[in-house]
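task queued by scheduler; priority normal; single chain, no ligands, no partner chains; default sampling; output format set to structure tokens
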Amino acid sequence: MAEATNRKRKLMEFIKEIGVDDAGVARVEDYHSPRSPAISSLFPTARSIIVLAYKELSNSESPNMQIAMSGRLDLMEFVRSCNYRVARYLEREFGAKAMTVAPSYPLEMSRHTQGAVGDLSLRHAAVAAGLGVFGRHNLVIHPRFGSRVVFTAILCDLELPGDQVLTEELCDQCHVCVDNCPGNALAEEGKTDVLKCIKVSQPYGLASQIRFWSRFAESHPEEQQRMVKDDEFWKLYQAGFIGFQYFCFRCMQSCPIGK
């Protein structure tokens, strides 16, 4: 136990040095997610989940969605780098096997998952690692950062002491997130209607691409020329090379916790 505690101390010092805002550890047996697959199917010998927390930039407050999304893309680049560095540290310093879990794509894409179920639920891992509790918006509320937080994780085969789960209720049930959701995706407590959310938050995703190009294929040349000059085409074009685009941060923006 003393050796495991010392490993964790050194690991947390390294995580802090590279600029991660907060971190916690959950034992694999303490992690439970209702929809994601068992960790044994991802990494049979995994024993610990190291969860990293990053405060969302103030870009998320901007009414300009290009600025808001730019902040998220900056954050995604940073967090993937941190994930790699922590996994590399575990393997080089302790001789562990470590596997990274990204905050977004790649995901299992199927009709069953609707592209919204992670192979590891970072929300449930964060709660198991003592980094927050669920709010009415089904996001994790961090005790310092509130709802404006993104998580990544590293699975490893080292035995590390787990952190205490938070018991404090951070959500005050003000329902501001519910009232401010433009897609009405939070109407049913304990559930986020994924299709309603995606329709508003990712309006230039796969479904929009299919609709646009189906119309394009059925149109006369004159109409096709008009379509490729339309704003919709240029938004779809941009989404095609930067990946999915968030056009809504309302649940994160509106939550008063941590402001």
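post-processing summary
- The CA atoms of residues 87 and 149 lie 21 Å apart.
- The longest strand covers residues 48-55.
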